Amino acid sequence: QVQLVESGGGSVQAGGSLKLSCAASGYGTYVTYCLGWFRQAPGKEREGVAAVYRGDSSTFYADSVKGRFTISQDNAKNTLYLQMNSLKPEDTAMYYCAARWSLTKSCRLTVADFAYWGQGTQVTVSS
Q: What average pLDDT does the chain have?
């Protein structure tokens, strides 16, 4: 059973930075996994932010965060990260870590594709 635990959320002013972490367990040494970050703002649908293919660290980003957010992984620590820079008020949301098996290196940022989810960590950006 894959388990995901997020941390690192908080409150920051616009233009600031935060780094989220996701401690992952339960998938052993398998590399055919996509790990991703999603977010959900109040009254809005959950949306994909960024994903990484565990096998070769290929990365995928939503257009809204390209150039500002960086997803990375530390396989030795089984930890996923999301470095968020130049934060905007519209980045305010609950951020979720997610994982899924993947037979290909393509990690689409589609909510329905991901089977395993963390409990979320809140990010609030004030103007």
A: 94
Which among 123, 8, 106 is positioned nearest to 54, based on CA atoms? 106
Contact 107, 36 (CB under 8 A): yes
Nearest to 98 by CA among 41, 39, 18: 39
More confident residue, 77 or 96: 96
Specify the pLDDT at position 85: 98
Q: Spell out a b/e string for 63-85, using b for 16 or more CB atoms within 10 Å of the CB, else e.
A: eebeeebebebeeeebbbbbebe
CA distances (Å), origin 101, targets 27, 53, 70, 74, 126: 9, 10, 22, 18, 36
Q: What is the pLDDT of residues 79-92, one digit of tens each?
A: 999 999 999 999 99
Residue pointed to by tokens 């820079």 = 85
Which helix (H) or strand (E) is 21 found in, with range? strand 18-25
Output the six-digit token pair for 99: 């994982």
Query: What separation in angstroms does the CA of 6 have from each of 12, 13, 67, 96, 117?
Result: 18, 21, 22, 7, 10
